[in-house]
Design goal:
321 residues; alpha+beta; 12 strands; 11 helices
Amino acid sequence: MLQTSARLLRLLSLLEMRRDWTGADLAGRLGVTPRTVRSDIGKLRDLGYPVEASPGVQGGYRLGAGAQLPPLLLDDDEAVAVAVGLRTAAGVAGIEETSVRASAKLEQVLPSRLRHRVQALQAATVAVPGAGPAVDADVLTTIAAAIRAGERLRFDYTSHDRAASRRDVEPHRLVSWGRRWYLVAWDTTRDDWRTFRVDRMTPRVPNGPRFAPREPPEGDVAQFVQRSAGAATWRFHAKVRLHASAEHVRARLPLAVEVTSEAPDRCVAEVGSDNAQMLALYLGLLEVDFEVLDAPELAAELAKTGERFLRASAGSSPAPR
């Protein structure tokens, strides 16, 4: 059996690992009786850890929120992951300063072996600066807390065309794409999956009732965000038939909004971009034959690009005017 001090640390680690525990589960993990678990929970409370208890035959425990942040237990890999994550978050609009402060505090107390791992990774990587919309850290944490608790989220939302609405959703995941944050959620009013820009959200409290998690959209929330967010913001859209499998196109063409298989080696894709020139270049990178079905601007751009490439391959250029 673990000594009392070691057992308290192990108990604290278990409480931080999962939201809810029964007394029997904790006793089984620690190899002690439920009575000892109750005694150890009391010791943790005396040390300032806000452990909440629920009544019942089994009895449940969870680590709640207190007036102050108590010490957290992190293993080596978790500590490195947090340190690297904080450095990465320093490049996210809206939370730069707080991320840098938290990173400095953590690195100050890291053991030398872990500090060297973090510093080596930082020295070997380069971040490309860029501008992005400001994201309120409180909004991010509010959304994340609702996802973790499995509670419906209510918020005011401003769409890309400035239309205001009030939403009631079942939040699924936060997705960071480029310099923006998106929420993937089940919209209870529209009865469908939706993507929301976090910088356009204003949460309303309190949260709604608990809900049962649904299967994620399309099995991959990252691809869902790419397609749905792109479809809403791209200025140019086209439909093309590609002589390749739908799986090949989905994997290699991030500008695809929807891909429909026609045969094992042929599919039709609805694609978009900011302009026809960009779309022509992306389609060329696929290295498969394709046909433009409904966008004369794209066909014209492809002809122009093809002529330019032919001149380049022949080593000639148009005569100056």
